[in-house]
Predict the 3D structure of the following.
Amino acid sequence: MPNAGVTVCVIVPVLNAEDTLAEALDSVVAQTIFARVRTIVVENGSTDGSAEIAAAYAERHGNITVIRHIGGGCGGARNAALPLALEPYVAFLDADDILPSTSLERRVDLMERSGADILVGAMETFPDIRSYTPDPLYAEDRILEGLAEAPQLVDIANVTNKLFRRSYFDAPGNLFLEDVSFEDVTITMRALVEARRIAVLSEVCYRYRKDPSATTIMTHALVKPSNFWDHLRINALVHERLADDPAGSALVDRYLIRSIRRFLVHAPQRLSPEDLRQFFDEARELYGHYPVSLLAEHMTKASWTMAFYALLADDFELFRDPDSHILGVELVDGHPHLQIDRPVEPRLRPLLRIPPPANLRDGTLASGNGGTNLNVSAPRRSAQRLRTAATRFVRRPG
């Protein structure tokens, strides 16, 4: 039975986090409704001082519990805690992140008032404070009657800025994937797709620790070769489980397309030649059936369009080394397109179009932000320079 008066359970997986764990747990203790919070710290086999730090907090606070679970990664640790989480609501905190002091109070309050199945809250990075959810959707608290009212919610498929009803995890199959990165994608995607009502919290409810050396939050994800495989194969699992859902197939497609774009572009620099060929084949198997118009709809950088063009054209050499095959920029029906050194299948030509906000002025292709200009009638130039210039046209996140 849950403790009387306890409303929300916070699950904190820990593995070798002695430098940040105390800050994370301090942020839980500082919650305005801490007396109504139960925290389960899952010690996942640390070899540093994490276990001792967690034990000290449990000794000082009766509503902090430490359990030990070896193996399964972050997903395995969360799964080990779920049977012990009996409170009406469940939240997740990583051991290197923190919660603003009103985070849980505001999440629970909006869930209670709205009757929503899941809540999604605004996020920011720290110590360099930047919004991780700049979308106008988060300008005010909102109650959505399903994911179709805000498809962009699938673009952040982690669990940490959410609040779940405990009952969601009672359904068969609603467990975290184990021993992989991006272990929470299937949990979040299913919850969003199946939710009849979604609460959106405008207040920042989660602070994500961003390495100052990383240019974006995705930077570290794009370094480890294993992450490329994990992400591709998890996307295949999401497609298998959810793409046929009549209410959510288009929304799942949005996630599958947008989430893989950076991995496709960076794969040639991160994977061995043998692995790259296999990665290309598996990506083509998953994405090769998508309509060109749907893919083009989600392209905001020329480098992404090139990667998908290569997949659908079954052109591994173009995928492996796009720089060597770009001749320049040409106008097709009045729109700028990348020009490549091989025949273009007409049905795939939209994937070579340079995405907005590129525009044409006086015969010159110019970026909408006043950046690099390319004369479309100029002779062949350096492929690298052309590709760099083309990808500068679009600065919008996506």
About this structure: The CA atoms of residues 225 and 270 lie 6 Å apart. The mean pLDDT is 87. Residues 249-270 form the longest helix (22 residues).
